[in-house]
Every structure is written in C-alpha cells, then in structure tokens.
Amino acid sequence: MSKGINYEALANEELFALVQQHDHEAFATLYRRYDRRIYAYCLTVTKDKILANDAYQHTFASMYENRATFRGGNFEAWLFTIARNFSVRAVKKSKRRVSIDERDELVGGVEHNKGPDTLMREALVKAIASLPDNLRQPLELRYYGDCSYDEIARQFGFSLSVAKIRVFRAKKALRELLTPQSEMSK
Amino acid sequence: MKDDELLMKLLDGGLSTAEQRLLNERMASSADFGREVQELVQLEQSLRSEGDHAIHEFEPLRAQVERSIKSKIQSQSLSSAGAAGFSAGMGKLMTWAVAALTGSLAVWLAISWQPGEAPSDLAKQESVHEQIKAPEVPAPVPTPADPIAREAESAIFDGSDSAASAPVAVRPDGEAIVPVVEPDVVESDPVLATNEPAQEAEGQDTLPAQVVSPPPPSSERNARGSAPAPPNSLRQRYELEIRQLEEAMEESLRAGDVVKAAITETKIGRLQRDLRQIESSRRHLLHALAVFESGGHSSLAARAYGDLGLLEAESGDLPQALRYLERCIQIYDSLDSGEMGKWQRQLSTLQRQHASD
Questions:
Q1: Residue A163: predicted pLDDT
Q2: Nearest CA among A66, A103, A105 for reference residue A85
Q3: B352 CB near a chain A CB, below 8 Å?
Q4: Which residues of B touch A124 (CB under 8 A)?
Q5: Quick one: pLDDT at residue B259?
Q6: Which of A68, A97, A126 is a domain's end point?
Q7: 3-class SS at B170?
Q8: The domain B184-356: what is its CATH number?
Q9: Residues 17-76 of B with CB under 8 A from A
Q10: CB contact under 8 A, A171 and B44
C-alpha cells in the first residue's frame, strides 16, 4: 500500500485508471489478480507452453502500452481479448515454422533420457491437448489458472453448474484416454 | 444421488459424511465403480501436480514480466513528471510574455490613437485591440499523462499499423480483420432494419413502438453504408424517449433494482446509437454489460454484447464489432438459446462483407 490507497480493495477498472497514471503498485495488484489466469488462458488457446509464454508476455506488455485505448467498461473482458488475440497470433506464426518437437523427432528423438514421471506428465499433457475445446479450456483454467468454478463460469459465460460439469467430463475423458482399454474393460 | 454427482463432490473435496458413506457402499458393491473412483482420484492428484508444476515453471517468466513492466511504468512516470514540469514552466513564461506584450501595445495605442481619426482606421485599431485583449496562447506541449496526448496515443494504437503492439481483431480462422461496415444487413433483415436484432428476445426489453422507424431507402445511406441519422422530428421523439427512460432508470436505481436500471440503460444506449451518439451509447451499454456480468445475467449480457457489436459496426470499428458479436454468440451458445442464429447471421454477414472487400 502506498499513498494511503488500499489497492486490494479497488475494482479492476479503478486499478487500471491508476495504471494509466503510471502507478506501478496498481499494476502489480492487477497483475497478481490475473497473471495465472491469463497464462492458463494463453495455454488453452495455444495448446503449447512456448507459445503461451510468448502470448502471455505480449499481453501484459500490450496492456500497459495500449492503456490509452481502454475505453472504460469491463477491464477483464478487454484483457482477455488481448490475450486471445496474441495467442491466436502466436499459433498462426508457429504454423509457419517447423516445430521444435518435430525437429527433435527428425533427428532421432530425445525419449531415451526421460524418466517415468516425465513420461507420465507428458502423456497427461498430450491427453489434455487432445480433449475437445469445450472440455479442455475449462479444465486448463481450473488447474493451470487455479480458477474457481465461478471464475471459469464467468470466463466462458456459462452457469456455475455447467462449469463444474464440463471440468468433470474433462476428467472422465482424460481417464479414458490415459487408461489402457484392457484395464477399462476389466 | 447419482454416481457422477458423488464423484464430482469427492474430487472437489465437498463430500459430507453421509455422502462419503454412500460412496463407500457403492464402491463396495461395484468393482468397476471402485476402480473408476481410484483412477479419478489418482488423475485429480496428477492434474493438481501438473498445475503446480506448470506454475513453478512459469514463475520466472511471471517475475520477469512484472519487473520489466514495473520499470517501464516508473520510467514513464518520471518522464511525464519531467514533461509536466517543463510544460508548466513554459506556460508561466508564455503568460508573462503575453502580459508584457499586451501592456506595451496598450501603452502604444494610448499614446498614438487620436480622436477623430477616420472610421476605417478606428475599426482597424479596434480590431488590433481585440486581438490584444484575447491573445492566442499556444497550447501546452502534450505529455503522455494529459488527455490530448492520450488521445493521440490512442489514435496510434487504433491505427492500421498497430500489429506489433496493439490487440488485433481476428476471425476464428486467425485472419486479421480490417474495419468495414456492412450495409446489407440492415436492408435484408427486417428485424435488423431498426438495428434491433433481438427485440423479441426479451418481452420487457424492447423499444417502445413509437420510436421504431422503417429503414430509410438505400439511396439515403452514407458512404460507409450505415443509415443516416433520423430526421429532426424523429430525433426529437428519440430524445424525448431517452429523457423518459433516464427518469425510469433513476427510479429503478432509487428502488434498488440495479438490473432493471441496467435494462433501461441498454434501451437508452440503443436509442443513442440510432442518434449516432456513439460515445454516450457505448458508455451506457458497457455499464449495463458490467451490471449483467457481475450479476450473472448471461442472457442479458449476451444481448448487451450484441448491441455493442452493432454500435461498433455503426462507429466503423469492425474488429471491435466482431469481437463483441463473437462473445454474444458464445454466450448464447452456452445457454443453448434460440437467439444465437440471429446474431450468427449478423456476424457472418459482417465477415462476408469484409472478405469481399
């Protein structure tokens, strides 16, 4: 807290008005509120950590650089729109080049150095990436973004119960993807 | 209680003792269910650990971005403070210089002007005197902190050359969109003819009949393709309607009915859109949207997004219009609402128009 302002008590729009006046404490507060959610959101759109990192950095840099273009209204919606645009752009750019994974595979792969935990994590990440968007996105916000069901519901514009059901269905779908068919039918 | 409900509660850590007992019973009676529970619990742990791992990996990036933007803010803050000081100093200097010049000229006029001079000369001198009385003070040098500079900065970021830093509108296929306004929508769709695509969506949320006018012929449309502002008599009726709605809104607020007030606000916003009062319309619609979103009124929020989309199309900001319409459709889709088709037509028409351009 500085200048006697309780930053945590301020609404997003009030904080951003202070950011527009170069208040770095207000920025830090907003950043803490959204960093994980924006990162998770970038991840849900890009399905790739490197691209998500890129989109995430651009989102916050752009939020500050373009502060004058914010016309009031819903700050959260504005911020997520920026994140979405940068994520889509990152995906588009990446399609123009051979991915690092593909290159690794071309030169013989790197699988032999990985332990069982790493392989299990990779299987989980791949399974998550293969889920349909309507299940994957709420799930990623829940676990990568540490979002409550309320926040997920607000983000996608559906009800709390729909948010819970989608996350649960995603988990059931993951179980099916990760469990060998022979085990499932036992 | 169904198995899935029990499982959801188990995974989210919300099982009561009775529910836990019920779950145990079901696990004991069905080996398959027991296995499913075990696997889902294991998966839950993996997901949490994966989430923690991702956040752990992300932490250095998080800290780096925060540091970099904070230092940018601090340097901006210092430079704007410096510029403001310079601007204030220059302002004082100019005021002093103008006052000194005014004084000198006044003295010169008092000495040189003689009564009885030709009227034309007198007129000239009066004119000079007028100029002295109201000297042109140069505008202060804009700094990033003042509204003029902000406006200029905003224009830069709204411009077409903003790809590197400004958010860009993209279609679902990832293609960038440039602003364009669709003229055919209003003509082809009778519901859209009044720019009110979802009037029948909510019984209480419709415009009063007397202010709804038929669309003007296409020849009256301006170069961008949007309908011209209503003629004066109609404009007066719109303005009267707006005043009445404003009173109704205040009454709702006094009664503590924030949602009703916001619904009225959307009506005001739509009327203002028809009157081309873009800024006021935007302000009302955004405010109403914030109320609907914070109260979880998804259907009303979707409609407000749609209205904002039409407003931005009207203002010529098509990328923003498309973003709003996409959000509107997304919400209606999640609600499985019949309204979605109407807005989808609107969106695809705008996109088609863009593609043809």
A1: 93
A2: A66
A3: no
A4: 46-47, 50
A5: 82
A6: A97
A7: strand
A8: 1.25.40.10
A9: 32, 35-36, 39-40, 43-44, 46-48, 50-51, 53-55, 57-58, 61-62, 65-66, 68-70, 72-74, 76
A10: yes
Question: Which residues form the domain of A42?
Answer: 9-97
Residue A56 shares a structural domain with residue A93: yes
DSSP annotation of A99 reads -
B105 pLDDT more than 60: no
- Are B298 and B334 spatial neighbours (Cβ–Cβ below 8 Å)? yes
Residue B43's DSSP bridge partners are none
Contact A73 B154 (CB under 8 A): no
Query: How many Å apart are CA A184 and CA A90, to the nearest integer?
Result: 38
Interface confidence, given as ipTM, is 0.70
pLDDT in the model for residue A184: 54
- pLDDT 10s digits, B83-101: 555 455 555 545 545 544 5
Q: Are residues A82 and A126 in the same domain?
A: no
How far is residue B229's CA from residue B268's CA, in Å, rounded to a whole number?
16
Instruction: Judge whether A186 is closer than 8 Å to chain B, CB to CB.
Output: yes
Q: Is A73 on the interface with B (CB under 8 A)?
A: yes
> Is 80 exceeded by the pLDDT of residue B268?
yes
Does residue A47 or residue A105 have the better pLDDT? A47
Domain boundaries, chain B: 3-69, 184-356
| Phi and psi at residue B26, to the nearest 5° | -65, -35
Q: One-letter amino acid identity for A96?
A: R
Sequence-ordered strand ranges (E) for chain A? none
